[in-house]
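Sample pair:
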Amino acid sequence: MDKHYRIITYIVICVTLIFLLRLFQLQVLDSSYKESAEKNALRRITEHPARGLIYDRNDSLLVYNDAAYDLMVVPNEMREFDTTDLCRILDISKEELLKRIEKARNYSKMIPSLVAQQMSKANYGYLQEKMYKFPGFFVQNRTLRHYPKSIAAHILGYVGEVDPKILEDDEYYQLGDYVGISGIEKAYEQELRGTKGKRIVLVDVHNRERGSYKDGEEDEPAIQGLSLWSTIDMQLQEYGEKLMENKRGSIVAIEPATGEILCIVSMPSYDPNLLVGRARSKNYNDLMNDTKRLPLFNRALMAMYPPGSTFKLANGLIALQEEVITPSTRYSCGGGYNMGSHTVKCHPHPGPADLIYAIATSCNAYFCRAYYNILSNRKKYKTIQESYQAWKDYINALGFGVKFNTDLPYELRGIIPSVEFFDQRYHKSWNGNSVVSMGIGQGEAAVTPIQMANFVAIIANRGFYYKPHVIKAIGTKDSLNTRYSEKIDCGINKKYFDAIIEGMEQAVLAGTARSVQIPGIKLLAKTGTAQNPHGKDHSVFVCIAPKDEPKIVVFCLVENGGFGATVAAPIASLITEFYLNREVKRNDLEQRIVSMSTL
């Protein structure tokens, strides 16, 4: 009996010890149950920082933040709730709500995910009163971008929800976060987004917040993103968009001494406020489906056009540098440039012309001959391939056929064909006349408006440029953006720019641009007409002002606008007058342009 008693006693003691050890492990060593209990009482909320503000060059606010609210869900904390009631508050279907919850569950059962974004203050207030009915759901503060002026949509860009690739590449973001999608918002996402914080709050059984955990001891405040000062002149941008209403095309104005973009207009455009708030997706789809106007397409950076007669300035510089002409070299015109049975026609003007007069009158024959001589220079180059490659190298150095890779997302490089392209087309049997149309800005060459504006800045600077960019300072107005402060030489001797500049001045005083003279301002200009195989030619114009100390260069292209002097020239000259004088006195010209439509 004693033996059996002792065995039972040992068993009871062992079982008791096992229970005590397990209890010690659960209560002292293993924190998982404590954490599970805490999750029922604590809620960890990510504090999203306000994005940095964006100012224009004169401290006018271009982009600021408004309060917004997102409905979040932690799938693992969900319990049964009235889906109909929540759908009514959010104004979505039950199918859509369940779809979003399933998406959140697939992403993570423990991490909060977005259910409804950017709710209004009214919806937020109404929902807060009923949060006890929706366990697992909570409201998170956000900020919403707002634009005081409905301008500069393409260059400012917009903010949207992160896609799976961004989530995979950058651990900063979680499902439902917002990120810059285009424009400045994209180029300066790292600076604008700020630093996330966190907040731990106590939650009761009715899903209501009951204050901070440990008096906020473990909270971390969000840090707002850095503000940006852009190079854009808001008033000039607004004026440029006004002039381009009911037209299709682009204006790019640059301060040549710095490469700072003063205005960059792409029309048709849209109100940037359309791409914020809960209506963003619908509005975006509407804009995407507008295939006639293409308002989302940034023509200033992505549209590629034949440069037209403005390209003659580049070929004039190269011909001078290659010493196949001098400023006094004269060529006869006689109505055009003859190539056997084919003639590149030219408008009537007195001749023979030297370089300055050829620029002023935009003589096709002169620049065809000069271009042909560049490619036929067998004293220097043994083959057409060598001479063409040398020409292409100059053109690339002048900013054509390359990307600037600055803070201008999605820019295209344009088209300057390679030697191999023409070798293949002509079976290696070609000469200067085969491609002579590029001497006058037609044929296979295609450039973007930003490239043409930068080229005009090179002329204004007599041989160099700074990469065109749109952000002047980061963080504070005194913290200058030095990323694009490198002075880039284009490889053309400074002395050769004198003749080009004199020709552009004569174009205004007595040539093709004389109709857009600005009282009191010495303007340099060149008209252009870019042939368009799909309809009426494009109107092109470039200008520099004032002559002696250039403060602005402008490129303007109006699709289907016809001759350069008809539409593009008045627009560019009005932009120049407005920027330099802060007012326009040629009101009749302004009214004519504003009321004109080329769509």
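Residues 444 and 572 are 26 Å apart (CA to CA).
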